[in-house]
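Structure in, sequence out. Go:
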């Protein structure tokens, strides 16, 4: 009868503008899909050029090279006898569109432009593309000559249409369209489309995966059908990590699940599904059938090809499975680790250097690198040739095989404890013990000579010597002396990153890792151009609360017992003089707020879009059991003063792994002024008026 269709989707680790590598990964995924019997293959959004090309989309080169790759794909024997659905930018009548190009046996069947563009948070698609606003409308697209020479076609259909094969009907969605309130799959399903496809470029955010899975399953729960989702994976050149999770769903249930985090550049899912299950599911939904009788029909592109075989009665079909979600601690362990691996191998550096202070943040960063080493060894053990080849290039040894995470860590990870006269022996011991347990190459050094030299130059020029407040100095002197220490650590970090391997007789340099968390950045509790200034920061989008939970996860799963004392110690910058040999300075006392409060402020400011007055109004209810309205007002005012005074620091924030939707990243996610009127006079008067009324 031809009822069991075999379809494939994939997650590919594409890289912006890496046309050669992207083509190779696309071809590999198609070959794998064909070898498993698939008759249709779906790939991620804009997979030919890579999703993150940004303003390179304006360049004619990007369009040209995308068509050149498309020509190679059309010619490839691997793409014959399988419907291939690939993503690339296309210029139609001088307007640039984000498109799917669907082809079979050297013939383009349809070019389908994206209807709903992603334009919030990290996404700026309206900057580069125009949405296709002509619903159910198809135009002629005149192919460039390099494609005409391969296909023999002069024009092909371009627009909002569906494919009618010999046995079923397929309709296309592209990423954001699944999230839109009027998703195309709704009316396509009413018009008889049985298979929906979605090519995505969706990035990781902590606790987000279930939302995507729920959307896919709900797409077919009400209306019946098969839903196939492909997604990009990995770091394609910026702060985002695309987290795979390719999946196939039928009638509201998942039947195939891809990994969320892995070092595999190509992952293919194949499922065999019975079309009669879709038809029988729909048959008893009377409300759906009544709506279907009134729907406007989609243009259908007829395809003389079937996704099933004529004799498939005995073919086994896929059964529903239970989706397994990672805990937030597992997400922190795996996501930033995979992002670091992509960054390391693609930047062609020899490893990482981390200033390890013995506190929670830098220790969490070290644990993420250690987790990365675990992932590399596991991938090699599982026979991944790409990871093995990359590891050998990084360590400059063509015969090397990474088997022990601690041994691999020793080769590619350098940690450095930079002591001063204000550092305690406790933090020094904690850093040393953690370095021993993860296996990093550890350096202990003292920065006092450099600090005295810098302060000495100032004293020689001005005739004045600044002092800490503990020794009678002013708050301005105190802050300046703290900042000198912090900035000298940054200078030394880069010096050692460039030359440490040279001193050991090895080639290459190291990437400097930052370790400021999202809450400190939001509050501005960091020195501009100190060790928060680095090449990349794997924890810059993660809250202090989540990092503490992650540290506990590492104690239990990696047996890193050194983390116990780090967990129990109060967070401190150790930039002010010790009192009786003990640390007197703590982060929360310095900030005038707790890290838990900071997370709440951050979520209200960014996610709830709350200014000072709205935040106050929300918090007097949230905190009514623990704070009076006057105390809430004082806390809100203090936060907004500190946030606005320090906002300028966000303009130089180290590129960080994006993991939280309240990130203050000024580059492209959280667009705000960096010179504020820090009195907030009108806003604070509104708060005071409300306090008086209460």
């Amino acid at each position: 009868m031809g009822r069991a269709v075999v379809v494939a989707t994939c997650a590919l680790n594409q890289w912006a503008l890496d046309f050669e590598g992207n083509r190779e990964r696309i071809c590999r995924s198609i070959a794998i899909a064909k070898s498993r019997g698939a008759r249709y293959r779906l790939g991620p959004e804009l997979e030919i050029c890579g999703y993150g090309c940004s303003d390179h989309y304006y360049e004619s080169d990007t369009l040209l090279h995308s068509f050149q790759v498309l020509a190679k794909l059309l010619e490839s024997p691997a793409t014959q006898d399988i419907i291939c659905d690939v993503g690339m930018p296309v210029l139609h009548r001088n307007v640039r569109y984000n498109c799917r190009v669907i082809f079979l046996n050297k013939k383009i069947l349809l070019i389908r432009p994206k209807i709903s563009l992603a334009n919030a948070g990290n996404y700026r698609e309206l900057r580069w593309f125009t949405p296709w606003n002509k619903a159910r409308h198809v135009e002629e697209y005149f192919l460039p000559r390099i494609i005409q020479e391969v296909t023999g076609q002069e024009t092909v259909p371009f627009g909002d249409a569906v494919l009618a094969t010999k046995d079923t009907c397929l309709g296309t969605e592209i990423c954001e369209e699944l999230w839109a309130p009027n998703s195309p799959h709704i009316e396509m399903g009413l018009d008889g489309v049985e298979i929906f496809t979605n090519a995505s470029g969706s990035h990781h955010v902590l606790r987000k995966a279930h939302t995507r899975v729920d959307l896919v399953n709900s797409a077919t729960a009400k209306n019946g059908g098969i839903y196939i989702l492909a997604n990009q994976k990995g770091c394609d050149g910026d702060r985002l990590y695309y987290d795979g999770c390719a999946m196939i769903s039928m009638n509201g249930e998942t039947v195939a699940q891809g990994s969320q985090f892995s070092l595999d550049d190509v992952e293919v899912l194949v499922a065999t599904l019975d079309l009669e299950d879709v038809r029988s599911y729909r048959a008893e939904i009377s409300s759906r059938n009544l709506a279907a009788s009134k729907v406007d029909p989609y243009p259908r592109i007829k395809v003389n090809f079937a996704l099933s075989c004529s004799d498939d009665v005995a073919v086994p079909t896929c059964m529903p499975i239970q989706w397994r979600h990672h805990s937030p601690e597992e997400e922190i362990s795996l996501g930033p680790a995979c992002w670091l691996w992509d960054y390391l191998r693609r930047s062609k550096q020899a490893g990482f250097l981390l200033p390890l202070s013995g506190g929670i943040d830098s220790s969490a960063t070290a644990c993420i690198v250690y987790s990365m080493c675990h992932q590399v060894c596991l991938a090699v053990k599982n026979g991944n040739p790409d990871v093995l080849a990359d590891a050998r290039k990084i360590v400059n040894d063509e015969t090397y095989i990474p088997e022990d995470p601690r041994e691999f860590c020793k080769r590619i990870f350098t940690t450095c404890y930079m002591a001063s006269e204000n550092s305690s022996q406790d933090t020094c011991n904690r850093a040393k013990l953690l370095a021993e347990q993860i296996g990093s190459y550890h350096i202990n050094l003292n920065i006092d000579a450099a600090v005295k030299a810098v302060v000495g130059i100032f004293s020689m020029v001005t005739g004045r010597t600044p002092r800490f407040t503990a020794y009678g100095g002013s708050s301005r002197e105190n802050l300046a002396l703290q900042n000198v220490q912090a900035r000298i650590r940054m200078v030394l970090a880069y010096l050692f990153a460039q030359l440490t391997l040279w001193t050991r007789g090895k080639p290459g340099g190291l990437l400097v890792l930052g370790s400021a968390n999202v809450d400190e950045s939001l509050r501005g509790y960091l020195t501009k151009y100190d060790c928060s200034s680095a090449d990349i920061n794997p924890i810059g989008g993660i809250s202090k609360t989540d990092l503490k939970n992650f540290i506990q996860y590492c104690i239990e799963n990696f047996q890193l017992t050194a983390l116990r004392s780090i967990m129990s110690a109060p967070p401190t910058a150790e930039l002010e003089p010790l009192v009786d040999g003990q640390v007197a300075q703590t982060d929360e006392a310095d900030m005038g707020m707790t890290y838990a409060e900071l997370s709440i402020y951050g979520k209200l400011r960014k996610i709830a879009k709350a200014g000072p007055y709205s935040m106050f109004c929300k918090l007097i209810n949230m905190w009514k059991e623990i704070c009076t309205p006057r105390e809430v007002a004082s806390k809100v005012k203090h936060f907004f003063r500190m946030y606005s005074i320090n906002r300028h620091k966000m303009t130089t924030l180290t590129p960080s792994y994006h993991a939280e939707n309240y990130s203050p990243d000024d580059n492209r996610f959280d667009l705000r002024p960096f010179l504020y009127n820090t009195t907030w006079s009108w806003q604070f008067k509104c708060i005071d008026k409300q306090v008086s009324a209460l």
